[in-house]
Amino acid sequence: MSAAEQHIPGVFTGMMAVARRDLLLAWKRPGDVLNPLFFFAMVATLFPLSVGPSIEQLELSGPGVLWVAALLAMLLSLNSLFLTDHEDGSLEQMLVSPLPLSALALGKTIAHWLTSGLPLVLVSPLLAMTFRMPVAVTGVLMLTLLLGTVSLSLLGSIGAALTVGLQRSTALLSLLILPLAMPVLIFGARTVSLAAAGEGVAGGLYFLAAYAVLTLSLAPFAAAAALRISNE
Amino acid sequence: MTAKLTCDDLTLFRGDRCLFEGLSFALKPSELLLLEGDNGSGKTSLLRAIAGLIELERGRVCWNDVPVLAQRQSFHNSLVWMAHRVGFKADLTLVENLQFESALRLQCAAELEAVLVRLGIHRLKRLPMRSLSAGQQRRVALARMLLSDAVLWMMDEPVTNLDREGRSLVMQLISEHLSRDGMVIMASHEDVEIDAPVQTIRLQ
Fold first, then answer.
1. At what angle do helices A118-130 and A55-78 cross, to 10 degrees?
2. Exposure string for B32-57, b = 16+ CB within 10 A, e = fewer
3. A187/A40 Cα distance (integer angstroms)
4. A5 vs B53: CB contact, 8 Å cut-off?
């Protein structure tokens, strides 16, 4: 056990290892990734069919419907963020690892965003077409979703960490997260509506970016503290 | 500097029930601490409390005379934990799981291949964990301990699911670890035959 031969793991290495492992798991079980995506696509395509083909109505409701569908799809995927790790004991192994738990939680959140947030952003232009959204507005929609899903993943990591030890926690998780997610929904949908009306969108985008930075700097620590509590 | 684990006046309640009260002991290198007790007597809770996973009602755990909660990182650097649940991902292969472990904690110079041969699981390297038997998964958890550089091994019922040969292997690994100045805390309800100083705590 000589010190020279030790391979000392760094915080960043640990975080990336967690993210890499979760991405590998997602690759081996694609069903878990596709579920929220299907939900998003179904809500966004069924809505125009049910309200009728009036163009004005679709253009008016498009941003709101797409954003609500994206928010709910994110919520749907959050439940399993720490659940499997809790069940198979690997969460406990992370808790007794010398690396800061917040870094490991952030690693998991990064993987979660890459597997559930980013796909929503990428398919949103297709779904925007069903609402007859112009190309420029679609760009704004993607940008708001990009910034908004980052915040939602990070906020969700706190809620998922708090509810990880509980049975059937989906409802409680939504209840915990939704109040914090409201600003994202309001500013996200409103910014896209403003873009559709031809007005300035910078303010909304700045707010979403600021919110993403705020959650990025606070959520990993809150999630780590919550994980320690729920593992008692 | 020789490592030292001291526990002082440990007290833990679960609901109204007192699991243990005023428990004090010290563990030095080459020593084995055996926790005995019936099912539900609080062996696992005591282990988890020492590892810093549960908050104690009263008392404190010190590593090298510094409270564990004040130096979680350096304590966890010296600790490897074998819980009842093995803590591996069922969809990943044995090697992928152990490679992930290597990013989580300090590794010693032992060769992965040699460790797997020793534990008799080298043929299972490319198989996903879910296709391994419970006993084989236990052996992979042993590989995690052998690959880590930790001084303190904490084991919760390490011989569960293992065959006769596996049990004697565990005892052999423990006595080897103790002879390297390692420390072991083990919860078990079976008799242990190890040629080393053994402290026993019986939980009621």
1. 160
2. bbbbbbeeebbbbbbbbbbbbbbebe
3. 19
4. no
Q: For A208-218, how does the pLDDT look when each residue is reduced to its tens digit (9 = 90+)?
A: 999 999 999 99
Tell me the residue type at B77: N
* pLDDT classification of B1: cutoffs 50, 70, 90: low
- The tens digit of pLDDT for each residue in B55-102 reads 888 888 888 888 888 888 888 888 898 888 888 988 899 989 988 888
Q: Which amino acid is at B102?
A: S
A53, two tokens: 């083909």
Q: B69 CB near a chain A CB, below 8 Å? A: no
CB contact under 8 A, B51 and A98: no
Nearest residue in chain B measured CA to CA from A92: B87
**DSSP helix/strand/coil, A29:** coil
CB contact under 8 A, B91 and A29: yes
What secondary structure, in 3-state letters, does chain B show?
CCCCEEEEEEEEEECCEEEEEEEEEEECCCCEEEEEECCCCCHHHHHHHHHCCCCCCEEEEEECCEEHHHCHHHHHHCEEEECCCCCCCCCCEHHHHHHHHHHHCCECCCCHHHHHHHHCCHHHCCCEHHHCCHHHHHHHHHHHHHHECCCEEEEECCCCCCCHHHHHHHHHHHHHHHHCCCEEEEECCCCCCCCCCEEEEEEC
Q: Which of B179, B180, B184, B183 minimizes the C-alpha distance to B195?
A: B179
Measure the CA–CA gap between B73 and A129, rounded to whole angstroms: 52
Structure token pair of residue A229? 């509590």
Q: Which residues of A177-198 are buried (b: 16+ CB within 10 A; e: fewer)?
A: beebbeebbebbbbbbbbbbee
Q: Which residues of B touch A80 (CB under 8 A)?
A: none
Per the CB < 8 Å rule, is A25 touching B180? no
Mean local confidence (pLDDT), A215-230: 94
